[in-house]
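Internal ticket #5521
Category: modeling
Description: The requester needs a full-assembly model to guide mutagenesis choices. All entity lines are attached below as received. Residue total reported by intake: 358.
Assigned to: D.W.
Attached entities:
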Amino acid sequence: MSNNNEIPGFVVWMTGLSGAGKTTIALILEEKLRERGLKVERLDGDVVRESLTRDLGFSAEDRAKNIERVTFVAKLLSRNGVGCLCAFISPYQHVRDHVRANTTNFLEVFIDAPLEVVIERDVKGMYKKAIAGDIPNFTGISDPFEAPENPDIHVRTDQQSPEESAQVILDKLASLGYV
Amino acid sequence: MSNNNEIPGFVVWMTGLSGAGKTTIALILEEKLRERGLKVERLDGDVVRESLTRDLGFSAEDRAKNIERVTFVAKLLSRNGVGCLCAFISPYQHVRDHVRANTTNFLEVFIDAPLEVVIERDVKGMYKKAIAGDIPNFTGISDPFEAPENPDIHVRTDQQSPEESAQVILDKLASLGYV
């Protein structure tokens, strides 16, 4: 606001199934944007669970609280010229729409891999447990995932590498003048 | 970081009894800093209770969580060049020291008015209730307030106006090159 050569803040909101590649792509983006000297913060489960959402589990109510708190942080950062890289399953469209309504330069990014692909990957062994019924309310198995109807960016991580997906997002940010 | 004419971020952490004038001074500071075109966010109970700490009450545990979440937000804002004006009773020195350790350019500001003065003011009628025993764990009455031993700034709101107190803080920020 006060300076001429600042970028505007923005929110790259990565939504998708567990194992789709959200955090992997967020980490690549974070590195590339930092290399350019841009102000950027990555917000994902690993980052916020240490303090901001330490008390929360995975119930529907706790997931909603999780996103509510992250939204508050992303609102304050994005309106002050910081780029936020947010990686959360965030399965509900109305919740993502709420984040959009409350933040600056919000981009809904669908990190898309078919369910059978993420079950096959099963990086953390979570799908196996969810299918066996050992984890309740697991998105894609026992809880719905509402795929974005009209995402600002749509990347298919079963068809391209994380680096390629990150580049698609970077190109979009550049075309919008955000980076 | 990327630009030359940016101010560094900072945290003006206002601690003091309920009714000492923390929020009043924060509002004056916010207005004066915004007038200068500086990036600033005010964090106080009224702001964070809408979303970030909506689930929290006033137990010792909930107060600790409250400050923990605010610290996370102030950390991210201050390290990205945003000035944070934080107004919380925050009665414990070790908690304030924790905020200092986790944020950029932290200033502990003691908003000081003697207990008898804030009881006399009793803007929200809280002291009357606390003294009657209707509010448990009330700082200054039934819970301790650890006055800062060595605050960066000490203002006496029983001896000067809120505008004068705000000016003392502004002068300190200017002398440090933060504004």
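Resolution: model delivered.
Comment from assignee: Chain B touches chain A through 26 residues (CB under 8 Å).
Ticket closed.
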